[in-house]
Amino acid sequence: MDNAQQSSASCHVSVMPDEIVHWVAGCQPKVVIDGTFGGGGHSRRMIDAIESLDLVIGLDRDPAVLRRADDEGVDRLSVFLASYEQAAKALDVCGHDRCDAMVLDLGLSSDQLADRDRGFSFQFDAPLDLRFDPENGVSASEWLARQSEKEIADAIYQFGEERFSRRIAREIIAAAKRREPVRTVQQLCDICRRCVPRSKNHDIHPATRTFQALRIVVNDELGILARTLQAAPDWLDEGGRMVVISFHSLEDRLVKQAFRDDDRWNVLTKKPLRPSDAEITTNPRARSAKLRIAERSAR
Ligand SMILES: C[S@@+](CC[C@H](N)C(=O)[O-])C[C@H]1O[C@@H](n2cnc3c(N)ncnc32)[C@H](O)[C@@H]1O
Question: Whose CA is nearest to atom 7 of ligand 1?
């Protein structure tokens, strides 16, 4: 099955699917956790291509993903509404202590980007939410309303690597003082347009880094990733594989350091693997992907 044959309800095209199948198949897995199920493309590819597989456990924090997955009826697949941080619980529910591989394909899916009401895309005006799970936690607009100017500037700088973070934070606070708190995508885009000079080739939207930062904050993306990389050696059998695709340097650095600094991992990719030019041409979303793999060392 190729990517085009993914669930009709999902418009997400999986990134580096052949590489995922190759590296997961290499440990002849019976039980695999797909920690970021999304459109389910990686799960379905693995189920189709890896004969040894008895079960793929799909996890996602987004209730919309679960609603789609309910219709699938794919054999050897169980999908749960949960953070990948709760993989041990999902294993337990399925009657297993450990798994043979865990796949993480970080960030957001094209389905989430295309959803006009979630605030992920600059193309649609919507409430500034940005949560993967809109039923828990606080939205990005609520988060902004609760922080000081310095806290906002620091977060935009740290998680968005945005040089103009202070200007942006100043404008966000000034808007709140005028009783026009930032509540929508367009309000924040307007502020970023005023504060961030256009990039040389106009290739990156002035709000890109700020939105990345707020998304990371409201979803605690880096905290969850760091805790998971720390806990995952307990969930994997000896020789089991941790397979992670990241899309920006903050994520990739965490993965690289966690694999390198923990002797429970044997690193299988000294340098991250990148998508082929052909894949980037057909799926531009893949262009910043980096894939790293480590194997659980002997206990
Ligand atoms: C890039 S998409 C995954 C696409 C999927 N691999 C495919 O091929 O269709 C990332 C998914 O991870 C989910 N996600 C983000 N953080 C998560 C977390 N902590 N636990 C579980 N899912 C998470 C998002 O909701 C999104 O659906």
Answer: 41
